[in-house]
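Service request form, structural biology core

Requester: graduate student, group of Dr. S.
Request type: structure prediction, single chain
Budget code: on file
Notes: please return the result as structure tokens.

Sequence provided:
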Amino acid sequence: MSESRPFDAAEWASIRGLLQTDPDAYGLPKRQYGSVLLDSFNIRKLGDPDARDEHTWAFLADVCRRFDLLAVQEVMDDLRGITKLKKLMGPEFALLISDTTGTFPGEAGVAERLAFIYNWNHARRGEVATDISYDRSKLLQIHLREKDDIQRAFEKYLADQKDFDEGRRRTKPTLKMPTFLSFMRTPYMAAFEIIGHPSSQTYRLMAVNAHLIFGNSMSDRRLEFDALMDWIIARVTQDSEYYKNFVLLGDLNLKFDDPDNDRRAIARHLKTFDTRAGDEVNVVFPFLDPHPGQTEVFRTNARFDQTFDQIGLFYKPKDLPPHLQHASMGQDTRLGPDYGMVNFVQLFSQAIRGKPYVRDPEDRAVAREQQELVARFEHRVNDHMPIWVRIPLFEAPLLGRPASA
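Core staff response, request fulfilled:
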């Protein structure tokens, strides 16, 4: 926990008042009849309700209740935090939570859950809720294909461990696998039906909630990312009758240290999945590109230097109207398709400092002042910002076939 002082009651009044007065300026989308809002939000160590004060809880509820379907990452084993948030959001919201993942029960480590909060006036659960995993036969195929590299990884680890035990190495080694074996934190998937309104037809989607490995290198992250992408695309390609289209919401830990080059590299990598899927599946990650009218991609962490959080759409072309395509996202900001981020950094800066937050300021005094501001909220409030997509509802089916009468 940071030693910096928390926001006091007057500061919270300024923050919440500013957001209420001008939500558009800070990326909080309006509820718009004829559209649905999907959100992804990593809420840091969401467990013990006493870790956040009541002002913080009220603020988080203000933000979260704007969305029809919200995927929450980093929910702790202690369910009091997520249930408190859902209760503050209002009686129209329901909750779906995974089991803990990331550690074996009873062993040391940080166990996390993944959760969906949904407004049952606009969305209802389908029949499916499950973890995503690779079956044994698939894993054996991977082991067989990569057996030489796996053997070398074990040999290196055992040699490094011997050096550590005998004092020739100062740090304890870690075993780094050259290939995907399993998810560090198992993604969670659930079926939902978007109810819409009387003049629109219900459409169906599979929502995948993921918090991928942070890892020591981009190669560690890419192994999990590729495995999840392969699984979703194979599932969408295969399924022609049930929940045919998927939305991936989560903290994927993709790095943007060098925004231009990193974005281009990730975009090129994603295009390989498009090629693999052929004409059967379209893959769209809107947060890889700057929103229309902006010059750079959204930065989703409190330090304003990374885009760890992502939303991806995986759909069959015939299931979406032609205008719901990547190139048009962000053009129609009323009904969508649109995407954005609730910008805590700029909101807190304007409310507390009375001026905007500047990325990489040349003035050291400004940089220090901004660092002090971030230290006040990144642990007590949050270190990630919510991202969202708006999808329009039409009389024609969207993201799936109409529900049966």
